[in-house]
From TrEMBL:
Protein name: DUF4139 domain-containing protein
Regions of compositional bias (Low complexity) in chain numbering: 353-372
Signal sequence extent: 1-21
Disordered: region residues: 339-372
Organism phylogeny: Bacteria, Pseudomonadati, Planctomycetota, Planctomycetia, Gemmatales
Amino acid sequence: MTRWKKWALAAGVAALGIASGAGLDRLTATTTAPAAAQDLKPAVQLPITRVVLFNSGVGYFARSGEVSDDARVDLTFREEDINDLLKSMTLEDFGNGRIDAVSYDSREPIARTLASFAINLNGNPTFANILTQMRGERVEATLAPTAVNQPGKLTGVIVGVEKQKAPAGNTTIDVEVLNLWCAEGLRAIKLTELQQLKFLNPLIESEFRRALEVLSLSHDTQKKAVSLYFSGKGKRRVQVGYVMESPIWKTSYRLILDKEDKEPPYLQGWALVENPTDDDWENVRLVLVSGRPISFKMDLYNPLYVERPTERLELFSSLRPVTYRSGFKDDKQRGALAEADMDASPSLQGRSGALAQGLGAAPPAPGAVVPAMDRGDALRRSVQERQNEAFARETAADLGRRLATGAVGSAATAANLGDYYQYIIQHPVTLARQKSGMFPIVTKHIQGQRVSIYNQNVQKTHPLRGLKFKNTSEAYLNQGPITVFEGSTYAGDTRILDVNKNEERLLSYAIDLGMEVDPQVGPGTQQITSVRAVKGIITTTTKFTEEKRYRIINRSEQDRVLLIEHPNRSNQQFRLVETDKPVEETPEFYRFQTSLKSGETKTFTVKEERDVRTTVQLSNSSDDQIRYFISLSQSSPTLKQKLQEALTLKGQWDAVRRELQQVVADLQRLHADQDRIRKNLRETPSEAEVYKTYLKKLNDQEKEIDGLTAKQKELMAQEFQARKRYEDYLANLSD
């Protein structure tokens, strides 16, 4: 590429980091074009010569051509594309010239323009809203004829619009009413009875008409003109590049499988490209980039006004609160496919043509687009590869200019946003405006092994026919649909997600009716495996075992390799036991592989187990828990002995507690009997014989109560000591 002489950045740096490069001598763009340049005859419009499409919804477009002396280049763009144009456009002059200016149709925001009129028509105002804005204006109102009045005219001043309740059958509704100050007084007119309204103020009439004209003009055109002004002498090449919103390019694939499995699978990938512009692409160099660059929209076309604060003199202002921001504080896959010998044989090199003939396709017409990866002789391929490398370097230089004015850091950051892969269409592309096209981007043999894939949640009875392949195409495969052929026979459809180079992936495309799988749930078991005690807390470990049996029969005439997708429950603490290791493991599934000969029946068993731990705090409320753990065969003899000692202590505590309860019951009985005796004494004469008997019995009970009270105090102390010994023993019980 020739050394750049002079070039200028006309508007911003692209969000994708495209507008960056080296060799900027000086920036010469001005805000207005020279007066003489306004009369220049338009040059031939620059055709599109290069297109780089990203699968993130944008595209880079480059126009280049020759201009002579001072020239103006006129381009037109859709109004919705102007913002992207202003954000990303770069202009270059490769001769002894300079860029004077870029001019474009500008306009005020329509909302701001409409708000400047006496009647604001923003937001589609209603009749009542317009009348409310005109309070105080004189109007002439024409009333519609009704049953109670004749059509007539009223002249007055608008006071306002209000809502009133009006009867409507068995209910009421809100009715908007215009309050008008007339010569005879205040009048209320329903808007439904108002047939015509005329503003008597000529200025208001003019303002209303002009506001409607602004609305009308805003609908007149959807295209905006952009003029590029170049100054210099002689003929020279110029270029303009910009990023604009563009449909994402898509991919679709064809996968050809050999019926006899004598040849490796053949993958053909196509890129689907749309030209939604109003320009024909003629002999355009096309590059398709797979990646996820960051892109955004920004309103640069509409004039923007910054709201300015109102300052007051220091004499009248008081100190405002100051606010501060806080500172900153500091799977590994199992089982790979065997490497296959991919040396191309004559039969393989002619396969794409044989496929086209097998499918009934006509030979390519003269001048038609040929596959980008044509397998010719070694010399021709070497020359073509050198041309592609040169074009790739040229494209990369065009997309990655580093500005000498300090933009190098931004370009380096943009380059580190993520990896990408580009497909270069080797031959210039011709695509008419508003047309779509398909271009081959991958034509390679890949490593693959036919398999049947069974997943109970997908199809309970039959597995799916599929392929386990390795992406040896030396290209990144974009996500997209795949049509599968077996020889020249359609076999089914499938789709893949993005596949990196040398990555292994599964795909399925049809139901395998030759195989049948019957999933059966085996008997589940649970067993306590261990019992341990630590500080009065006993932990039991219970092992739960689950079994799944897959009964498989191969009724086809060919041997089969079956992949069984079994749910991966490692996040639920399940682990595989007494089961073959899976050939592959994903977060959702284990993939087990088994082979079946024709007519063979086999049962594949997947056994899983997990341990569940339960903790129990030994308490002094009941000894049933202690007896339960003593009865477990998994409890050690030492633990059982210690638990038996705990029961002995619990028995001693229970004996003291029972004796104490008996003393308390005796005291309650005596107190109740004394209450009875005292009542009898109050009712019995003192000289009666029974009175003395009551006194003697009351005196004897007092002595008995004194003895029981002393015993109760002694037993309470014994009960406290017995309970403390038991609880301390439980708290320190370990094994």
